[in-house]
Amino acid sequence: MKQITITFVLVFLLATFSSTAQTSKVLIDNEKVKVTEFISQPGEDVCGKGKHTHSDHVTILLTDAIVTTTTAEGATQSETYLENKHLYTVTENGKTQNIPTDGTFWVKGVTHSVINTGSKPMRFYIIETK
């Protein structure tokens, strides 16, 4: 019985504290730039909790990415990056745009919310200018 209780407590603690939520780690933060590594699990926020703002920045995707972005105005768009095809696809208002890329691109300052709608974790860096 003691073994079962200990096992149950360990499983409960692992389930409670190994959240699948987005994690972030600031790698550099100085007067010029802020570099943050993000890891997002399926169904979770990607690059900030809920609606948030980024200054002008470079995004470097390290894995495939499938996300749904909601703008500050409430418009949604689907975005997909396939690492092995070097292709970034954006679908907005029924129009699809394919952009060849190695997963690195410039983004003007933006307020949005982003959810990982893929089936795998995604990992990437955001390098924000100051």
Overview of the molecule:
With 130 residues, the chain is mostly beta strands. It has one domain: Jelly Rolls. Helix content is 12%, strand content 52%. The chain contains one helix and eleven strands, in the order αβββββββββββ. The protein has one helix spanning 2-17; strands at 23-29, 33-40, 52-54, 57-61, 65-71, 76-82, 87-92, 95-100, 104-107, 110-116, 122-129. The strands form two sheets. It has a six-stranded antiparallel sheet with strand order 3-10-5-6-7-8, with no helix packed on it. A hairpin with a 4-residue loop joins strand 5 and strand 6 (76-82). Residues 7-20 have low confidence and may be disordered.
SS class: mainly beta
Portion in strands = over 45%
Biggest beta sheet summary: 6 strands, antiparallel
- CATH H level, superfamily name: Jelly Rolls
Estimate percent helicity: 10-25%
List keywords for this structure.
130 residues; mainly beta; 6-stranded antiparallel sheet; 5-stranded antiparallel sheet
What would you say about this model in short?
The chain has 130 residues and is mainly beta.
List the helices and strands and how they pair.
Layout: H1 2-17, E1 23-29, E2 33-40, E3 52-54, E4 57-61, E5 65-71, E6 76-82, E7 87-92, E8 95-100, E9 104-107, E10 110-116, E11 122-129
Antiparallel strand pairs: 1-2, 2-11, 3-10, 4-9, 4-11, 5-6, 5-10, 6-7, 7-8
